[in-house]
Write a structure and sequence with these properties.
By secondary structure, the protein is mostly helical. Helices cover 79% and strands 0% of the residues. It has one domain (3-287).
Length: 289
């Protein structure tokens, strides 16, 4: 099977596990400290991989600057917001569902910033996906009333939504030609600096309990998410329109909700199942040729 066919499905499956990994590891480390250590490890591994592959590095100060900005948005802003929100009580499934609203924002902004044309059928798919995610978010929000969720969690998850939307557009507009492996090293390096600053600003103790569960969560997030899924995302952004890539994120909330149900007992109701089905149909309409 060709990579262009397999990559979207594989990306959705891998990306959806990030929220689960966050919930598993956050009891043992503060959010920005957790992510900073993750970024440092990934920078070392990817830099070694780039050296072994003799991968080309991005040339020019301007390109490296653009890559760094996209890294701050896609990794420090997005992941920082998600991890902070989950650490403040927001369920993993609900976190995924809120940032799952990204495609509709990306499609709208892409028309103005990238001059990408969105057809009538694609708009129908985007709206259908938006409605599907809305059903699941509504049901999860009702359940969330019974939980102790800090208001800052909702602010953080909205900032994560804005960061991943702007990061996708910025990457497509200014850094789409970046070398895949070495360019991702630059992104993570910029993100690690940003996350270290956030850890200091939020007065984190930067202490970690290296329990087996935390090590497992860290290993999964580093190897599967930060290396495998991100390289797939960069590949997809390079070879597809911004709105088509963003539409894949509609499939992440249903996948995460199912994982959270089996692992953490986060309940799925009839409306959530209906919303998931609508989201899948919406994505199919957006990405169809």
């Amino acid at each position: 099977m060709r990579l262009s066919t397999l990559a979207p499905v594989l990306f959705v499956l891998l990306w959806s596990t990030g929220f689960v990994g966050a919930k598993l590891g956050l009891p043992y480390a503060e959010p920005f400290t957790f992510l900073w250590v993750r970024m440092v490890i990934v920078v070392g591994l990817l830099a070694a991989l780039a050296f072994l592959l003799r991968a080309p590095w991005p040339r020019g100060r301007a390109l490296n600057l653009h890559i760094g900005v996209s890294g701050l948005l896609l990794h420090a802003g997005y992941l920082g917001g998600v991890f902070f929100a989950i650490s403040r009580g927001l369920p993993a499934g609900l976190s995924a569902l809120i940032v799952g609203l990204q495609p509709i924002l990306t499609a709208i902004l892409a028309q103005f910033l990238l001059r990408e044309r969105v057809s009538g059928v694609q708009w129908a798919g985007l709206l259908l996906g938006f409605g599907g995610v809305g059903l699941v978010v509504g049901e999860k929000a009702l359940l969330a009333r019974e939980l102790h969720i800090e208001p800052s969690a909702f602010v953080a998850i909205v900032l994560a939504l804005l960061s991943t939307t702007l990061g996708t557009l910025y990457q497509k507009r200014f850094a789409v030609q970046m070398p895949l492996v070495a360019g991702t090293v630059v992104q993570y390096l910029a993100a690690s600096v940003g996350l270290f600053v956030l850890a200091l600003l939020f007065h984190e103790t930067m202490q970690i309990q290296w329990t087996p569960q935390f090590v497992l969560a860290m290993a999964w997030l580093v190897l599967v998410l930060s290396m495998g899924a991100i390289l797939l995302l960069m590949y997809l952004i390079r070879h597809n329109s911004a709105s088509a890539v963003a539409s894949l994120f509609y499939l992440v909330p249903p996948a995460t909700a199912l994982e959270a149900y089996f692992l953490f007992g986060e309940r799925l109701g009839e409306w959530a199942l209906l919303g998931m089905a609508l989201a899948v149909v919406g994505v199919a309409l957006v990405v169809r040729r």
